[in-house]
Amino acid sequence: MLLLTRAPAKINLTLHVVRRRPDGFHDLESLVIFAGVADVLALDPAAPLGLAVSGPTATDAGDTEGNLVLKAARALAGRVPGLRTGGFRLTKRLPVGAGIGGGSSDAAAALRLLARLNGLGLDDERVRSAARATGSDVPVCVHPRSRMMAGTGDRLGLPLMARPLYAVLANPGVHLPTPAVFKRMGFEPGEARHLGEHPVPHDGLGHGAFVDLVRGGRNDMEAAALSLAPAIGDAIDVLGATADHRVVRMSGSGSTCFALYDDRRAARAAAARVAGARPDWWVRSTALR
């Protein structure tokens, strides 16, 4: 019997780059939230370990052997002797290399399915260790709930209460590798920068206060990403021209940008306008949780 789960898009509402560590990684602080749009992952326990990829964005996903789904499965198998695995089937709907954690969310989905198959809790240290070993964004995607993440993605805050946030996601079709954006930012090994306060949310905030907190934040990677891919500026401008938006910003290292709205109707109307103006873009209206 197939096991199924969704791998939702991860949106960085805020992203503060703190420093470049001596090991070359960067310490971050980010408020993340998850979208209703997602890839879908299935696991067939009767099949040998492997991966088949299909769907609208499958051709951009690259070689299956290098896919993070298999990397996550092998990482967990190395930590759990006798782990039952199987054949994975990934339906790829999210754009690849787009700053919305598609590959990381896919890997986290694989860990959820394997944990279910083997009776492991998602808080099992072996699952958490496998997530950290697979990639920096994987741990926060294992439990896809809005929360703060820090460090190299290894430090996670408590889940925040779901808020009625609605968004339009727009990707102008530009693939932007994260290492290239970090390189353009120009951090030297061990260098830290104080670029301003980073708002930290808590569950006592109402909807309006939460949106105001997000508006007061920033994405420190946006300027560097825009210099490498000017189409990001076009996406920000087009989203910024929609009615009733509250916040417009780039997610992650780009190139997907988002606009926040107070209600679903405004988000859907904005998505229709953006898609009409840029029919070659990937555009979706979605709820965020």
TrEMBL record:
Residues at the catalytic site = K10, D137
Q: Where does ATP bind?
A: P95, V96, G97, A98, G99, I100, G101, G102, G103, S104, S105
What is the uppermost EC class here? Answer: transferase
* Domain of life (superkingdom): Bacteria
The chemistry this enzyme catalyses reads: 4-CDP-2-C-methyl-D-erythritol + ATP = 4-CDP-2-C-methyl-D-erythritol 2-phosphate + ADP + H(+)
Give the pathway listed in the UniProt entry for this protein.
Isoprenoid biosynthesis; isopentenyl diphosphate biosynthesis via DXP pathway; isopentenyl diphosphate from 1-deoxy-D-xylulose 5-phosphate: step 3/6
What InterPro entries is this protein classified in?
Answer: GHMP_kinase_C_dom (IPR013750), GHMP_kinase_C_sf (IPR036554), GHMP_kinase_N_dom (IPR006204), IspE (IPR004424), Ribosomal_Su5_D2-typ_SF (IPR020568), Ribsml_uS5_D2-typ_fold_subgr (IPR014721)
- EC nos: 2.7.1.148
Alphabetically list the UniProt keywords.
ATP-binding, Isoprene biosynthesis, Kinase, Nucleotide-binding, Transferase
Does the keyword Transferase belong to this entry? yes
A molecular-function term among this protein's GO annotations: 4-(cytidine 5'-diphospho)-2-C-methyl-D-erythritol kinase activity
> Could you mention a single GO BP entry for this protein?
terpenoid biosynthetic process
Name the Pfam families on file.
GHMP_kinases_C (PF08544), GHMP_kinases_N (PF00288)
GHMP kinase C-terminal domain location, by residue? 217-274
Where's the GHMP kinase N-terminal domain? 67-143
The similarity annotation says: Belongs to the GHMP kinase family. IspE subfamily.
Q: Name the job this protein performs.
A: Catalyzes the phosphorylation of the position 2 hydroxy group of 4-diphosphocytidyl-2C-methyl-D-erythritol.
What HAMAP family has UniProt attached to this entry?
IspE
Name of the protein described by the UniProt record:
4-diphosphocytidyl-2-C-methyl-D-erythritol kinase
